[in-house]
Amino acid sequence: MSVDKETVRKVAKLARLALPEERLEPLTQELNGILKWIEQLNEVDVEGVDPMASTVDVKLPMREDVLQDGPTGGGQADNIVANAPKTEDHFFIVPKVVE
Amino acid sequence: MTNITDLTLADLRDALKSKKVSSLEATDAYLSNIEKARELNAFVTVTADRAREMAKASDARIAKGDGGAIEGVPLGIKDLFCTQGVQSTAGSHILEGFVPTYESSVSANLWRDGAVMLGKLNMDEFAMGSSNETSYFGPVINPWRAKGGNSKLTPGGSSGGSSAGVAAHLCAAATATDTGGSIRQPASLTATVGVKPTYGRCSRWGVVAFASSLDQAGPIARDVRDSAIMLRSMAGHDPKDSTSIDRPVPDYESSLGQSVKGLKIGVPKEYRIDGMPGEIEKLWADGIKWMKDAGCEIVDISLPLTKYALPVYYIVAPAEASSNLARYDGVRYGHRAKEYSDVLSMYSNTRAEGFGKEVQRRIMIGAYVLSAGYYDAYYLRAQKVRKRIFDEFVDAFSKVDLILTPSAPSAAFALGEKSNDPVQMYLNDVFTVTANLAGLPGASVPAGLDERGLPLGLQLIAKPFDEETMFKGMYALEQAAAFKARPEVWWA
User: Is B158 part of the annotated catalytic residue set?
Assistant: First the structure.
């Protein structure tokens, strides 16, 4: 499988990456180079093999549903917006989304 | 006494404890080395004032006789670890100026044990690279140069600031992270010791995420003992990382010097790859002989799927990265584009400006292999091959205790030499990436020099959570290799 310029344009849009027209051709070639190399995986027999998402064979731990202390706890609105490019009264400011 | 910065971490620790030197003296000596080594570009941020404050606090604790395990020892922290009140960039423009309001668990563990932070170490952007050339803050220069040459070589990547900083004695040791080889390959290229522990051994909380099922923190240090001391302080269970494992952290240092007699060392024939320099093959043979002389039993093993590990990695890691990096949208932290017409162009302009070429390439690959119609053919297949690679290791470790391989397929190469060919660059991790896919601990130990005088490392891979056997083996390798070479100090 290889990707054409239209597919690359579409994936860039899905990934929210503005792609200047002059990068389209070289990026398509780079991606095809990588995809061609990846395709050797088709040689491997994976019949009946379960996909592996994690090497850690433990049940996801549960904790009491209570407010935590420290940085994952509550009451830290100042900290949460501290690095935001644009805020007002502990809100993140973004361009208008709905008319 | 000799120059403080030439002491190993273990010796400095002991000298601090017995008050032969103060932490402030050691810290000032390192800060002076860092100042003189600006050309190496190992640090993104130097935190001199904070370092001196921490050192003074350490000296006060030592005076009272209640210091921690590495009280007063000055360290470098890879810029992937969030440090409270100190810019943490992940080597990216998109996080330039990002000052976390919290501390990563691994760095917090180090401060708990008394360490001093000298600053934040340069790295490939979001840990995506093998040469440090993808850093927004410019490449790190390897302190090692070829004999008679003065061209600039890579210190490896992504933990290139960590490897160069430790090799040039700009810090006593450093934190690093390894997703496909980012601790072990740079360690190999700089004659330092790099340890990637078992997945789940160190908390990932507060470490900027690249590929969450593969990322693991570990140390880069000057010798095996120093790396054992570092890992003991870094490791430990953390309820804030659901994949962190709740089991006690052993005193790894006490494994050093224990007999390796009778250990079974696996040598996988598939790690003998086309185009591998003869010197690396010879070094590997030396390593096999050293382990045999130390009383180990050498066992030929086969890991036939080895050659598929990198292609699996280049599906799984970009897929996870494309998802993890979706958070950089110019809303909550980091860079936001100045020009946009609506929220969508704000996102896409912000991301196009903030991410470098390699990061964008990997986001694109990840988004593509996860997209409708391609998921089964790429991502699902890769996860199945990953399972088969994992099973191969389980099978191999039913016959052997450790696996011995070269750490990297070449010595340090010139900056620019491989940066135009992504696949060539990816091949740097051919020997290391398997341990990430299988979640196994792996370590690189300096073992020799090639004919140009550049360092080469050997890798040991161990069973899950059997770092103690790995440290025993590493120490035996270190003793036998008796590697003493140091780079000539040309940068100061």
Answer: yes
